[in-house]
Amino acid sequence: MPRPRMKGGPMPKGNVMKTLGRVIKMLFRFYPVLVPVTIFCIIFSAAASSVPAIFMQKVLADIETWCDSGDWASAKEQIVPKVLVLIVLYVLSIAAITAWSQIMAYMTQGFLSKMRCAMFNGMQDLPIKYFDTHRHGDIMSHYTNDIDTLRQLVSQSLPSLLQAGCIVMCVFFIMLYYSVWMTLVVMGGVVMIMLVSGKIGGGSAKYFIRQQQSVGKTEGYIQETMNGQKVVKVFCHEDKCQGEFDALNEQLYQDGFKANAFANCLGPIIMNIGNILYVVIATVGGMFLLSGADNLSISGLAFSIDIIIPFLSMTKQFTGNINQVTQQINSIAMAAAGAYRIFGLMDEQPETDDGYVTLVNAEIAPDGTITETDKRTHHWAWKHPHTADGTVSYRLLEGRVTLDGVDFAYEEGKEVLHDVSVFADPGQKVAFVGATGAGKTTITNLINRFYDIADGKIRYDGININKIRKSDLRRSLGIVLQETNLFTGSVMENIRYGRLDATDDECREAARLAGADDFITRLPEGYDTELSNNGSNLSQGQRQLIAIARAAVADPPVMILDEATSSIDTRTEAIVQRGMDALMNGRTVFVIAHRLSTVKNSDVIMVLDHGRIIERGSHDKLIEQKGTYYQLYTGAFELD
Fold first, then answer.
1. Spatial distance between the Cα atoms of 488 and 91, rounded to a whole number of angstroms
2. 278-303: per-residue pLDDT in tens?
3. Greatest CA separation found in the chain?
């Protein structure tokens, strides 16, 4: 199956910290009070867990003094208060840990919710071109896998990193306070740990980033294959699809294997370096103690057992927390890759809209004066503000559409339309015929401003459509496509999708106009029948009739029918055609059809070939000319 062109690529080097910084800024922006409170609780709990080394040294010094003097009562008076203070600190530390863990649980889910909303809101403003050039499964991966990496970052990695970093700093200064020489020995082991972490952790991060990208590609292919499952089976491409999936899955396996191979060996290596360092500290401390070496410290204390023992505990704590920091490298790398993809979606340029002419409900006075009203009057008008003099003029929406010398290309240098001119008066039915790729659907996409033209003009009731706000322009146009999209919900909700403020009676009236009321009332729950999976429990014709009813309830003055009957049988086509005829009555209509029998009664038929209009006129006039249309009509009733 052909695959859409992919944009973007792997995360450039040096973008990890920039991306993580942006995540943290957004966290502060969403929770300006809770984030500082959480940071305070984490720092307090980290400091409280570092203090016992000081108390241990003090208690050991008191015990050593008691052993020398034998005065237990005096030692007890010194030791008990220290132990009580330590207990209080531990209780407060537990309270702080409980507080920040609960706050983080709340903030994490709230942050992810806000990020999903930001992504979805931004995605709603993206141009159609974005969805034409990106796999839908890969876009979905932003909302699942990429968001999940942020969950791990916010709820686990950042708090652990901050807590471990605070403990390392506290313990480092405590060690310096007691002995510079012993601290230098510890730092020698830390340098070794950092070298190992940089080598192994760097490789792990690189492959975790690749794994995140491979997940998106794999999900995109799976969704693409699921959507095209019938095509796969019809053309017996199961083996080909399996081969392509195996290649993507193999790449995902290799990236995941290498990432976890690095990650799994990092922890044990660092832990054992810590164990070796523990032994080295015990040995060096014993040597200093036995040799009577002078101690260099801020405290001014000499080498003694009450310094060596706390140092051993601090060494374990120091290396353990450094190990904790290095263990976060993998999740941070994955989160950076996920956040980079998320921000890539959020930073996509939205659809530009410089329009200032809006569509309003209008009342027409007996003298022809047009006034704006909040009531639905079935009369619409273009509201045109004039910045030059500050006045506002109104023009009744009639449905006159003109294209004058329009050129267009989806990609630069590959022109799709050339010098196309179309004139549709209010109430006229204009048909486009031609071979696949001639440019028929492209014309309707330009009228909707799904794409902007390269040259020429498109005017709606004499107004350049670039001046009309896109939402108002599209509100004035009704579209029935060949591929009908129905959404999960009831039949009534799907019809109301055309106008969200439509009443149930208006929806039923639209269904009767479209000829859909008969089959809808025979459904198990009537209009309340639930649809899912694009209305898979309905026939193609029934789905089309609901789509026509959806367009009818919007009551637009201009309709676009894009091959709405090409995929249904002749009998169903007659039913659908009656519904479309009722819908087209009194409206300007653009019809795209392969079946020439459906365009015979059009006011104007335009024959396109390679982006140019080569013939135009009524059915009878074109038959008399005996040109391309005549050959198509007499040679076959369907265009290939």
1. 52
2. 888 888 888 887 787 777 777 777 77
3. 127
Q: Where in the chain is the domain with CATH 3.40.50.300?
A: 401-635
Domain formed by 16-29+111-126+136-346, architecture: Up-down Bundle (1.20)
Amino acid at 74: S
Write the pLDDT tens digit of every residue in 498-541.
Answer: 888 889 999 998 888 888 888 899 988 899 998 877 777 788 78
Collapsed DSSP state (helix, strand, coil) of residue 452: coil
How many Cβ atoms are within 10 Å of 161's Cβ, its own excluded? 19
- CATH 1.20.1560.10 maps onto the chain at 16-29+111-126+136-346
Whether residue 608 contacts residue 438, with contact meaning beta carbons closer than 8 Å, is answered with yes
Neighbours of 84 (CB within 10 A): 10
For the chain, helix (H) and strand (E) counts, in that order, are 22, 16
Nearest partner of 544 among 500, 508, 502, 580, judged by Cα: 580
Closest CA to 316 of 287, 283, 277: 277
CB 409 within 8 A of CB 416: yes
What is the rounded CA–CA span in Å between residue 276 and residue 281? 9
Q: Say if domain 401-635 classifies as CATH 2.60.40.10.
A: no
The four Cα atoms 79, 84, 85, 87 give a dihedral, to 10 degrees, of: 130
